Structures are given as C-alpha cells and as structure tokens.
Amino acid sequence: MDERPHLLLVDDERSIREPLAAYLARNGFRVTQAADAAAARDRLAGYAIDLVILDIMMPGEDGLSLCRHIRETSDLPVVLLTAMAEETDRIVGLEMGADDYVVKPFSPRELVARIKVILRRAARGGVRQQAPETQSYVFAGWVLKAGERALVDRDGVTVPLSTGEFNLMLAFATHPRQVLSRDQLLDLAQGREANAFDRAIDNHISRLRRKIEEDPKAPALIKTVWGGGYTLAADVTRL
Amino acid sequence: MALLLAAALLVAQAVNFGLQLRASERQRTQQTTAVAIARLAELVARAEAPRPPGFEPMVVVTARSPILPAMPKRPDVVARAGQTLTELGLGVERMQAAEAMGREYRYIRDPATATLRRVEGPRRNALILSAELAEGRWVTAVSQFPPHDYRVVLWLLFQTILLYGFILLPVLWFVWRLSRPLRDLRIAADSFTSAAPAPPVRERGPADIRQLVHAFNLMRERLAAMLDEKDRMLGAIGHDLRTPLASLRVRTELVDDEAERDRMAATIDEMNRTLDDILSLARLGRPSEPPALVDLPALVDSVVDDFLDLGAPVTAEDSDRLTVPMRPTLIRRAVRNLIENGIKYGGGVRVRVRAESGGAIVEIDDDGPGIPPDDIERMFEPFTRAEGSRSRDTGGAGLGLALARAIATGHGGRLSLANRPEGGLRATLWLPAAG
C-alpha cells in the first residue's frame, strides 16, 4: 500500500502539468494527471485522491465549475492555480470552496508547503472550513478582512497590514482567547508565506499593536502571557 | 446667441429712435420758424404802412438789433424770411436771426386780490428774427420753440419692449430647445471615462441635433465595446504569458545547480512583475477595486514592513493616523514601486508620511547619486531608466515610475522627483484629502 499522499493535478497546459507532476513526485507525493475536467472527474471516481490541484482557466468545463462540483460531492481539499492576479478574481475562486490558491507563475516550493499545511489540517480530522482568506473576522470594534489583507475600524477606515502582520493577525483571529507560543505562531503564520516571515515574531507583534491598540504600551487586545506567548483577548465572530 | 440678437435689436431700435427724433426736431424748427417769419412780416408791414400823422406806429422799433454777437446765428432762417418778405413785396435793409434762451410769461388771476399777475414761465429756447427797416430802425419778432415732445420717447420704448416680446422670447425658447440636448451631449462627453462609460444621451431637439446625439450615442457604444475588447485582450495576454512563465518557473526547480536555479527564478519573477506593471498600466482607467478610506501611514508602513522582511534597507518614520480616500491596492503598488526604485538605485531608503494642506504627502528619500535635473521628467516615461550603470541587471523595464505617476494622477494627486540638496533623490507623492 502506497503511503504517499495522492494528488490529482488538473491542468490543460502540458508544459506546466508534466514538470510540476515530476517535481511533486520528487517531493514525496503520488501524482495523477488530468488534462481537462472530464478526465479529472474520471480519475476522481477511480482513485482515492487526497488533494486536487486545479487550474482555473481550462477549455471546456473550467476549474471553478469543477471545484464547485468537488465541493458539492466531497470534502476533498482543492488548491487552485490561477493566472489572474486581480484580488477580486482570487476571492471568487476561494468562494467556490477552494482551500487555497497560488498565482501563476508560482514557486513550486511554496505550492508544496501549502499542500503540506492543508493535508496536515485534513489529517488532524479538523472540520473542513471555508478557506480562512475569504472570511471576515470581527473583534473589539475591528474587522479583519482577510481577502484584502486589511483591518477596518469602527469608522470604516481601512488599515492595511503587511504580509507578516496579516499572517499573525489571522492566526490570532482564528485562535481567539488561546495562548499561542512563538513557535505556534511561527507555524501558523508560516503556513501561508513560507519565505516572507523571517523576522522575530516579537517585532511583528509590536507593529501590530501599534496599529490596533489604543495604547501600544499597555496592550488590551494582543496580550503577552508570561512565559507562554501571546493571546488575543477578544471574542471573534466570523462573517 | 440670444444676447447677440438682443444687441442687434437694440442697435436697430437706437437708429430708429435717432431718425424719429431728428424728424420731430425738424418739424419743431419749421413750425417755430414759420411763426417767427409771419410775425416779422406783419411787423414790417405794420411799421411801414402809411398812417395818419400823430399816430405812432403800433410797433416797437428799436435803434439796434437785440441779437448779440454771442448768440448762435441762424442764416437758414434769414434766407427763408427774405424769400417770404420778397414774395409779400416787403423790403428790408437786412435781417438777422439767432437762437437764445427766451422767457415766457403767463398771466394768472390771483384769487385773493382778483387781479392779474404776471408769472414767469419756464425758460425755453426761442428764435429771434430781427429786420432793419432803415438805418437804425429795427423790428424784432420772437417765437419760442415748443417744448420737446417726450411722448415720442415713451412710444419708442413701448415699441422696443413689444419687439423684444415678439422676437426675443421665441428666439430664447428656440435657443433653449437647441442648447438643452447640446448641453446633455457636452456633459456626456465630459463624463465619459473608461471606468464608467456614461449612459446614452436622450435624443431630442431639432432634427439635426437629434442626428448628432444619435451619432454620439453610436460612438459611445463603439468606444465601450472597444474598451471591453481591450480588457478581454489584456486578460488573454496576461494568461497567455503567465502560462509559459509558470511552465518555466516549475522547470527551474528541476535544475540541480542551486545558484543557477535561484537566478532563473529571480529572472522569471522579474518578467512577471514587468508583465503585472504593463497590465496594470493598461487597466488603470478601469479599476476593479472600490475606493476606500485608508490610513495612509499604516499602508506605507505595511509596504515598508514587507521590504524589511526581505532584508531591504528601508526605514519608515512614525506618524499619526492620516486618513485618505484611495484604492489601496493601487497606492500600495505606487509606494512599492517608489521604494523599490530607491533601493535599486540609491541604497538606503527612508519613508515619511505627513499631512499637508488639503492632502497628504509621502516622501521617499534615497542615498543614491540622484538624477541630472534635465532627465527628471524623462524618468516618468515608460521604458526609461536612469543613465549610467543602469543595465538590465538592476531589473525592471522602467515602468515603475510611469505606473506610480499614473496611479497618483488617477487619484487626483501628483508625483514628482527632486534631487535633495544634501544628496540623493526624493520622490514626493501627494494625494488629496478629499477624493
């Protein structure tokens, strides 16, 4: 019995599909390829697939439609490949029920990192949730708009976040009132952007506090827990 | 149009008025002259008539003419009087005529005393006609000009108002009917932007105007179709170029030499960024992102933070919250391009945000060599890069500044470059506080 995770790679573009399949295979995955949506449905029926990598733009039935079909029939994780960099286009894909996306041209290493995060989450038996990036989180007068990577205050003023700040904030928003150690935060935040998070967590925490705390010197929202790490001292509602 | 017509009418009325006035003036003179001549003829006849001795003539005869040299002379009246006297067979030595201010007297009955009293009337112009019967014997006739008839003026005024009513009102109505669709057309043409093509203009007004509006509406539709086509084409270009780039990017991971692999990945990223810039520049007129109120220092800070994560030498000065309406993705991109340029050409970069009357300013200083002043404006042209050591290995297709300025302009703001006196270049991005 093959222990490797089984990926279904759906892309009409052979010049991407074949080298990507080879790369994924070298990185410990079993890969099955499909050149269009019909072939993909066929493979889905015939194999026990763990995760689908899906190109959005395909002739015939497109990736979004196939993604919706997969979501209606199973909990199978889906990662979208998209050639569109426009923010709104990406969000549409995630709203179709995808777990994550990468924009072409993507770094294959980053793709592998994200696949591993998703598979780990699925393996923990966690209830499959909508991708965190499509959601809004409301806490203490702030709205964290994940799709826009920004916080919005009571007056409707947008406060943009850097990638690092956003990843941290999202980690807090998805784990409110939990004490998160630096290692946990690093793990949670790094899952998304593997290479953009090298600096110390403390540095990002203090930047984030400057943006959201009334008094950054006496933080009321992101509290330091002695010897333990940090915690978001607010209730979070998902929108 | 209506004004021009009103002016023309006014001129015509003025000419008319002048002619009328002259005619009535001539009539006045003629009447007065005739009276004066008749009186003089009578005086001459009576003065020279044979009379019984002892009877003094009933005519005042003076030794000198009452006409003074200062009075304006009327030789035309003299000529006419001469003609009349000759016809009547009356002969005189010579005649003089002049105008002077005359006094008119009236007699009224005083109700208290029941006597007549002489009252001085208004002083009016009078015609004085004097004839010398013989040496030192002058007779004089005076005739007052009748008062000016101001009813003529009133009549003309009435006429003018009537004319205005009958001509100007229909013209005004016509002009208004004409200008309304034209104004709609102007507004539609003005408000036509690639982001939101204005709705079709209502076809109304005279036939040729309707045709013009119709033609404009057709053009509007064609333009909107062309813009849609452009968007579709850009989307296709983006897709068709990103796919081979993605293919290359995946293949680079199959290269064993790690240094070579990183260089390839960097080149592909660079190509992708250039492609993004080109597409953004082409799409700038039709942004998909809605505008929002954004804390500008926080935005700048987040961009700087992303650079810091990559180990770039950028520092940002702290500043208070400063809310500016904008499309954050675009402004983020503009700020990122400016900082990127500073890092590429100038080493260390310092960023500062401050409020300025009516807006906010982002200043981006670098420690580079600056740019020759003559070249500064040229830097904003697409595909232009600083001279000197700037070869391809510094990366970029020279679109960064062009895009940043286009974004600033699109927000009603400004972007300028200047060499700092202490060395290095300063990019100043100004955004208006009210969108």
Textual characterization of the structure:
The complex is a heterodimer of chains A (239) and B (435). By secondary structure, chain A is α/β, with parallel strands linked by helices. Chain A has two domains: 118 residues, Response regulator (Rossmann fold); 104 residues, Winged helix-like DNA-binding domain superfamily/Winged helix DNA-binding domain (Arc Repressor Mutant, subunit A), CATH 1.10.10. Chain A has eight helices and twelve strands. In chain A, the strands form three sheets. A five-stranded parallel sheet of chain A has the order 2-1-3-4-5, with helices on both faces. In chain A, strands 9-8-7-6-12 form a five-stranded antiparallel sheet, covered by helices on one side. In chain A, strand 3, helix 3 and strand 4 form a beta-alpha-beta unit. Chain B has 435 residues and is an alpha+beta fold. Among the domains of chain B are: 148 residues, no CATH class; 144 residues, Histidine kinase-like ATPase, C-terminal domain (Heat Shock Protein 90, 2-Layer Sandwich). Helices cover 50% and strands 19% of the residues of chain B. In chain B, helix 3 packs parallel to helix 4 and helix 4 packs antiparallel against helix 5. Chain B starts with a helix and ends with a strand. Chains A and B meet through helix 1, strand 9, helix 6 and helix 8 of A and helix 4, helix 5, strand 6, helix 6 and helix 7 of B.
Summarize the SSE layout with pairings:
The complex is a heterodimer of chains A (239) and B (435).
Chain A: E1 6-10, H1 14-26, E2 30-34, H2 37-46, E3 51-55, H3 63-73, E4 78-82, H4 87-95, E5 100-103, H5 108-123, E6 136-139, E7 142-145, E8 150-152, E9 158-160, H6 163-174, H7 182-190, H8 201-212, E10 222-225, E11 229-232, E12 237-238
Parallel strand pairs in A: 1-2, 1-3, 3-4, 4-5
Antiparallel strand pairs in A: 6-7, 6-12, 7-8, 8-9, 10-11
Helix pairs in contact in A: 6-7, 6-8
Chain B: H1 2-48, H2 75-88, E1 94-102, E2 105-110, E3 115-120, E4 124-134, E5 137-144, H3 151-191, H4 207-252, H5 258-283, E6 292-295, H6 296-309, E7 314-316, E8 323-326, H7 328-346, E9 349-356, E10 359-366, H8 400-410, E11 414-419, E12 425-432
Helix pairs in contact in B: 1-2, 1-3, 3-4, 4-5, 5-8, 6-7, 7-8
